[in-house]
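Chapter summary example.
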Amino acid sequence: MSKGRAEKTPEEKDEIIKEFLLALGLKEEDVIVVNVVDKEKNKGEKRTFSVGKIWFFTPWMRARNAKGKEIFLTLSEEFLVLDDMKKPMKKAANIQTSKNNWHNILKFDRPVENEVARAIKAHFGSDPSARKGTRLPEFKNVRKNFWVEWDGSRAEELNLEEFLQTHGIKIEQKREKEPPTRERKKRRVFRRRFEPDWHELYQNYLLRNGGDYSRADFFLVWRLFDAGFSFHEAVDVLRSVSLSFRPREHQRKSQGYWEHTVRKAAEWYREPEPYREPDDREPPAPGQ
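The structure predicted for these 288 residues follows.
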């Protein structure tokens, strides 16, 4: 679709972008958020403006895009973006972001909670890390060297309950948190008092394992579990610490990658001995 595409004037491109935003159900007075991202430097610029004034900002976005920066649109909680899809989807706004990749943008009648979003993505085989971000048509996907195009489809407002029932998508109920045991409370106290420098610890693991990031990731996750970190806490710490040592190209790893790593490490993890408060009493004299 990108090869042999007919050249358009800037005015024609602006009109297509505006029509795409209106096809999402937005109004001319609605404010949108656009992120201009330099993935090599892992930096971005954010701009907010109304749909009706899009033409005022597109020259600035095109100039950034021509310099190798990616253009993304952040959507509100009522939207859900299905990424890595192989074809357009009915009742969704569809844009082709690379040769074999489509974004199917769904709009619902109410905000989509994270558990519901994960279930829908899993059902359709979408990239689990994508949530509300999509690309804007008529800008270049720099990484894939592909011009993003909109097929003219419109996002219909869908009833969330009916959508889940129609596609047979079941949502796992949240489990009630069990009250912490006495031993776990003690470990949390230990964690607050003696939490190590995770960056220094990770660096030591790298040195011991010949720069093997995967092994260092596993060792760090095990130490986090020892300290009483939950699954999601461990994901956040691992991502922050590991990326500070990895080369630049690893910065693109998705949230799903880090969750998968923690999940695999958890399969090999054995619960450590319960933490016991140190005995501050004087040791007994010899012979007693």
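To summarize the output: The chain has a mean pLDDT of 81.
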